[in-house]
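Protein modeling request. Please complete all fields; requests missing the sequence field cannot be processed.
Requester role: graduate student
Desired output: 3D structure, token encoding
Chains: 1
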Amino acid sequence: MVFPHQSETGVGRAILSNKKSYSIERSVRRQVILAIAAVTTIVFGLLYFLAARHLQTQFDAVLLARAAGIVSLVDQDQDGVDSDFSEDILTEYSPQADEPLYLHIRNPDGTDFIKSTSLGDGHLEQTTRLSPEDAPDIRNIVLPGGRAGRQIAMAFLPRLDEDEDGSAAPAAEGRPVLGLALARSRQDLDRILLLLALILTGSGLLLTAGLAIGIHRIVRDGLAPLRDGSRQIENLDPSDLSARVTLARTPDEMEPIVSELNLMLARVEQAFQRESRFSSDVAHELRTPLAELKSAAEVARTLKAGDPAVGQFFSDVQDIAEQMNHMVDVLTTLSHCENGTLDLPLEPLNLAGLVRQIVGEPGQQAAGSVKLALSDDIGVFSHGESLRIILRNLLSNAMQYSPPGSTIVCGAETAARTIRISVANSVTDLEASDLDRLFERFWQRDPSRTAAAHSGLGLPLVKALGEALGLRVDAVLRNGRLTITLSGLKPADGGRQPVVQEQSAVAAE
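Delivered output (509 residues):
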């Protein structure tokens, strides 16, 4: 069963629609946004880490400075270890302070040396393994009351002090090692870190959202030619083969695709035009011989057996059949030339001998004479039968339309390491404006003056076969003489300067 063209397109689209869809725009946009979100998270996370580390370092530096201040208040003389610490002066260690500090200094035996009232019944954890040479131990702890805090623990030796009477202080090795623990709430630090985290998170989200919007527009604008091309391809109508994909802005990446697609569409259009032209040509050219055949058959029905006209009827039928067969052969050859399906192997040919054979063929007739401006030994590389058909049609056309008594000149010359063949004849009813139509199928300047055997396919066949052989066919009208040239033939060997010979025309077909 054959479906209409649009139905086939619809079935094809339905089959394609069953496949999993994939959008380059959505994929690119999603991947870019995810990449931006990941980079933003890493960058802002790193910023938060560095900022938090810096703030905590500053916090610890203040705590360490306070511990150093407390240590400087503890000294030792002959009477023992004493301290100038007083909550009356250092009120921040009292429970009445807005943000109290917590201090706990222990003797070597673990008894309390100094304990701030802010601790109440609680105490601060100390590391007894520390020695004065060890770095302070700073860590997060839970303060009395359950709040989060930060503590510095360290071991130190009391500062040596001389008595007022000038007696010597105890030896350094006799000083006790005291353990100090100083802590404070980290509520303000945590509040700042939380605010920083919120600011960075919000900034990151806003930046990601802004970049996502920008990326969406950039991707959308960047892929606009792709969407435009896709839309045009989707809207291609099988009934309009002249449509092409044209983009306002064609990216370099899409240029080969668009070019090849348009080239393919052009080839499809040309193929359909060739098929349509072939069908039209066959229908056009077979109309006349079929009408003649029908008319002959109607006349034959009226004839009686033994009538001499019966023999003429069969002769006419044979002529019509041969004419139709020749026409179909020519149209088929033209179709093969346009499709590029001809196999034309090249071989060395003697050009002068080939032209003489054609001029001497039975049926070649001319009203005047034919001059051959050809060297006897000039040779070319070409396809023998195709070149024979080209030259036969050129000479036959010249003989057919030359005025009586005129001269037809067939010559050859070397130009740019190639050989150019020319056939020139006088014409009386051809104008320069007719040259553009000279190689059109079935075109005839005056059909009433054209013999029935000539259907207007000779010169189109010359053009088609010449192009199939890689040759150039041109026509020039100057001073009443039409010259058709065939350029681009490769020489088979060297040739002498052509010698003009005159030869009477023989019978033409």
